[in-house]
């Protein structure tokens, strides 16, 4: 994707998330069951980077021995995450940053985790390449993502409804995220279907 086009889309998506930040926790309750988050986050270990942390709903779920840094490019989502962190007295470093341009050195983290993020990142392959870069060679990348169904009819319906979601919230319901993960060069170790073939838990590594 061209740089100008990406920064235009970045601005658009960021604004959408800034706008829905006050309602996000309520919307989330209707869309993602809590057990899915628990399952994904329980796999994290060591020095962890969570990308697209949103309002921080995963943060209380990390095992105690994790050293967590979390980023998001929406200032309002980060602001909400910060108030959760302070209220729950969690030890988490929060930073405003774009996953498509991470300010970390190569091989910095044992775990990189994202839940429902690559449906809205303007250039998902670039973002996935970045998390691959910052993950240690023996580290793990944990992705809990929803994506376009492989069922012909359902997939078509998701294509038709997608503009409603991108306009209202900023996410896409018809991304071919498994293909994007492969394009970014991640090595897929495990895939588990959590809700039909739409919500998947993917464990991958950079090498
Ligand atoms: C659907 S929300 C998911 C939030 C959180 N991961 C959760 O599970 O509740 C998507 C989040 O990704 C963030 N995001 C989208 N594109 C991003 C980017 N390029 N860099 C960093 N964060 C991004 C949005 O600001 C938003 O907070």
Q: What share of residues is helical? A: 40-55%
In sequence order, what are the helices and strands, one letter per element?
HHHEEHEEHEHHEE
Structural class: alpha/beta
Rg, Å, rounded: 16 Å
Number of helices: 7
Number of strands: 7
* Unreliable segments of 5+ consecutive residues: none
Strand order of the largest sheet: 3-2-1-4-5-7-6
What is the mean predicted local confidence, pLDDT? 94
Which descriptor suits the 3D outline? globular
How many angstroms does the end-to-end distance come to?
24 Å
Main sheet makeup: 7 strands, mixed
* Strand-residue proportion: 15-25%
In this entry the ligands are: S-adenosylmethionine
Element layout with pairings:
Layout (H helix, E strand, L loop, with lengths): L2 H18 L3 H8 L2 H8 L5 E5 L15 E6 L2 H14 L3 E5 L12 E7 L8 H11 E12 L5 H17 L8 H7 L3 E9 L3 E7 L2
Parallel strand pairs: 1-2, 1-4, 2-3, 4-5
Antiparallel strand pairs: 5-7, 6-7
Entry keywords:
207 residues; alpha/beta; 7-stranded mixed sheet; 25% strand; binds S-adenosylmethionine
Describe this structure in words.
- It is a single chain.
- A seven-stranded mixed β-sheet has the order 3-2-1-4-5-7-6, with helices on both faces.
- It has 207 residues and is α/β, with parallel strands linked by helices.
- It contains seven helices and seven strands.
- The chain is globular, with a radius of gyration of 16 Å.
- Strand 6 (187-195) and strand 7 (199-205) form a beta hairpin.
- Helices cover 40% and strands 25% of the residues.
- S-adenosylmethionine binds next to helix 1.
């Amino acid at each position: 994707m061209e740089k100008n086009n990406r920064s235009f889309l970045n601005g658009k998506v960021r604004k959408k998330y800034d706008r829905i930040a006050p309602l996000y926790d309520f919307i989330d309750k209707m869309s993602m069951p809590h057990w899915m988050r628990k399952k994904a986050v329980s796999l994290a270990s060591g020095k962890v980077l969570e990308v697209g942390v949103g309002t921080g709903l995963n943060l209380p779920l990390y095992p105690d021995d994790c050293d967590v840094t979390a980023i998001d490019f929406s200032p309002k989502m980060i602001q909400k995450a910060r108030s959760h962190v302070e209220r729950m007295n969690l030890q988490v470093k929060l930073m405003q940053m774009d996953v498509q341009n991470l300010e970390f050195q190569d091989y910095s983290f044992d775990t990189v985790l994202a839940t429902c993020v690559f449906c809205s990142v303007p250039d998902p392959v670039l973002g996935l390449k970045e998390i691959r870069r910052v993950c240690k060679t023996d580290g793990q990348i944990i992705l809990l993502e929803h994506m376009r169904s492989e069922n012909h009819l359902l997939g078509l319906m998701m294509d038709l409804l997608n503009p409603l979601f991108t306009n209202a919230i900023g996410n896409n319901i018809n991304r071919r995220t498994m293909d994007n993960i492969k394009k970014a060069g991640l090595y897929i170790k495990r895939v588990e279907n959590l809700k039909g073939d739409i919500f998947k838990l993917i464990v991958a590594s950079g090498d």
